[in-house]
Amino acid sequence: MATRASGTPSKAAVYARISKDTEGVGAGVQRQVADCQNLAESLGWTVADTYIDNDLSAYTGKPRPEYARMLADLADGLVDGVLCYHMDRLTRRPKELEEFVEALDAAAVKHVRFVAGHTDIGTGDGLMMARVMGAFASHESASKTRRMERKWEQDALEGKPRRSGTRPFGYAADAVTLVPEEAAIIRQLVDRFLAGESTRSLCVWLKEEGVATTSGGNWQTSTLKQILTSGRIAGYREHRGVKVAKAVWEPIITEEQHRQVLAHVEARKRSGRRAPQRYLLSGMLRCGRCGNRLYSSARRDTRRYVCQAGPDHFGCGRLTVVADPVERLIADAVLHRLDSPQMADALAGKVSSDERTAVLSQALEEDEAQMQELAQAYAAKQIRMSDWLTAKKPIEERIENTRRQMDRMNGHTALARVAGQGQELRQQWAGLNLERQHAIVKTVLDHAVIRPMTPGVRKFDPNRVAPVWLV
Ligand SMILES: [Zn+2]
Question: Domain Recombinase, which positions (predicted)?
């Protein structure tokens, strides 16, 4: 279950493109991807998939299969943010920019970031960038976009395949006809995955067997996971991440197997593997001048948290603090707090959390079932599109609300495990890994504001740190 702040992309796309103008072709694309991944990390986004197009032809209108796949994934809700090295990697002509903005609008995705580029309106590039930014900010979507969105929704509800993108593995180019050899591979992958084999090991196996992806790229665990967990292979049509209809194509695995795969993925998630953390207070510090998030940054061997300004950040860029003393101060305060009387008070009355979680998850299940019934009623033409859209709105809100509550409950459970253990944790602290330390800090600290430096004071001043406690 997501425990991130709402609005932070949890399945971002990294898009890179090799073209004639990229210096040192291979290295160029590696750097684009690596820089995007770093940006994702600093923003706290999770990358779900990487899309790389080889666009070496001089003809700029050449189709870009991976780009098309990304747009299709946006439409299907598999992607909720886009990272790209530079505007010029993403779109090659103004018309493509329009299409990209339309696709974003239709998918209600607003998170797009570039590693490089300027918002200087004076340059042609800056102008384009400003237009994109303007389009993201605008809440009105053009009627053309709405028509497109309806068409996509209509197709989805009728169980028809989406119209663009590379063909799905296991199916021919029409996305409906089975490719028997690939279907057999999918069945084997599912069996082995359910038997406990990791996606990494399965990717290695695919490579050894010489099995190619449909876009011709290398197998990545994210791509494989997307195939294994997709409703598509179990004969469901999904739209924006929700199963909306029985598909017109033949399933490769059974519904039962599909449910088992999802349960297996969920269980692995719960067993707790997350992206490695490099800074104890990543995402938890705010600038005392402008209120924006501070980012980790190392300069000349000194780790720091800084307020970043510039095109990809919105801070004032006028505040920096050396990481070490702040981290020591906060860790110390957290450990003290865990043993404080407030903590005992905060924990009282939260014992029945298991029971509460059960109630919440049942509510969630009922709402999700209702969503599906509605979609089916629409598909069977029992209700009109407008009624369907109106009816699903309150349910979606309820689902969102329940999810938030469940996240909070998870927080309580985590706290219950460490409350009163400050003394003990202090002795082990240095030996705990960063992820564990971060998790402990997060149980009690919402964030800390770093105040501006007092002019003339060179030494670290503890008064600059103002923690805002959760409990
Ligand atoms: Zn600032």
Answer: 168-271
Burial classification of residue 384, based on how many CB atoms lie within 10 Å of its CB (0-12 exposed, 13-18 middle, 19 or more buried):
exposed
Report the distance separating Cα 178 and Cα 195, nearest Å. Answer: 25
d(CA 307, CA 291) in angstroms, rounded, equals 9
The total of structural domains in the chain comes to 4
Question: What is the domain extent for residue 391?
Answer: 346-418
Among candidate residues 278, 286, 287, 227, the one with its CA nearest the CA of residue 252: 227
Distance 303 CA to ligand 1 centre (A): 18
Residues with CB under 5 A from ligand 1 (ion): 287, 289-290, 307, 315-316, 319
Tell me, yes or no, whether 16 and 89 share the same domain.
Answer: yes
Regarding whether 316 and 247 lie in a shared domain, the answer is no
Domain identity same for 26 and 93: yes
Concatenating the DSSP letter of every residue in 176-243 gives SSB-HHHHHHHHHHHHHHHTT--HHHHHHHHHHTTPPPTTS----HHHHHHHHH-SGGGTEEEETTEE
Interval between CA 79 and ligand 1 midpoint (Å): 30
451 C-alpha vs ligand 1 centroid, how far in Å? 10
Residues 324 and 351 in one domain: no
Which residue's structure tokens are 């290295």?
27
> How many A from CA of 289 to the centre of ligand 1?
5
Report CA(168)–ligand 1 centroid distance (Å).
45
Residues in CB range of 43: below 8 A, 6 or more apart: 8, 113
Asked whether residue 440 is assigned to any structural domain, the reply reads yes
Same structural domain, 138 and 30: yes
**Is the predicted pLDDT of residue 88 greater than 80, yes or no?**
no
What's the mean pLDDT when you consider all of the chain?
79
pLDDT in tens, 15-63: 988 766 544 444 577 778 888 888 888 888 999 999 988 766 545 567 7
Residue 294 has a pLDDT of 92
Within this chain, do residues 254 and 208 fall inside the same structural domain, yes or no? yes
At residue 254, the pLDDT reads 92
Segment holding 338, helix H or strand E: helix 323-338
* Residue 166 per-residue DSSP state: S
The pLDDT value recorded for residue 412 is 66
**Pairwise pLDDT comparison (231 vs 403), residue with the higher score:** 231
Residue 452's pLDDT band, with cuts at 50, 70 and 90, is very high
